[in-house]
Amino acid sequence: MEIEEVSSCGEALPLLSLNHVSLLCRSVLDSARFYEEVLGFVLIKRPSSFNFTGAWLYNYGIGIHLIENPSLDEFEPIVEPRPINPKDNHISFQSADVVLVKRRLEEMGMRYVTAVVEEEGIKVDQVFFHDPDGYMVEICNCDKIPVLPLSSSFKPYETTASFRKSAAPAKCGVLFMENEMMESLSMDILNLVF
Length: 194
Known about the structure:
The protein is of the alpha/beta class. The protein contains five helices and eight strands. InterPro entries: Glyas_Bleomycin-R_OHBP_Dase, Glyas_Fos-R_dOase_dom, VOC_core.
């Protein structure tokens, strides 16, 4: 076995944002319906070269990629609803109106649990529930709590323009510029609309 040693220059990867979350599901139809009707995602085209059942959904600047795997029942049969545990793995979405979220979940007959996080007098409301395959979803107003780095060396990616330019490999330069142009165009459109 040959091991290649890679030296680290001490800088993080040149990431831009979270692109998508991929989830195995028992039924693409049931899961897609949940993400459309409950969370407001929209089905989008996925590559036709895929030779497996799945679906791509998009909204809020993030994608949900569903991959059907009916054999999940062999490993984790859903005999009864599992307890909703806020400390379980989950994906979280920001909401401006958590009270409305709870009301809509009740109207849909969905089970959920709530939690309140308090930090220095600031309260954050959280609502947790499961998708059809038991994956945990959180809806919160977490933006109330400021993001305070524990390290003084923290530099958000957006503010390190020199890092962005030096970190992007030459072969990705065109794609990088296309992304920058699309971001600029999006901001211009938003400024015109509002």
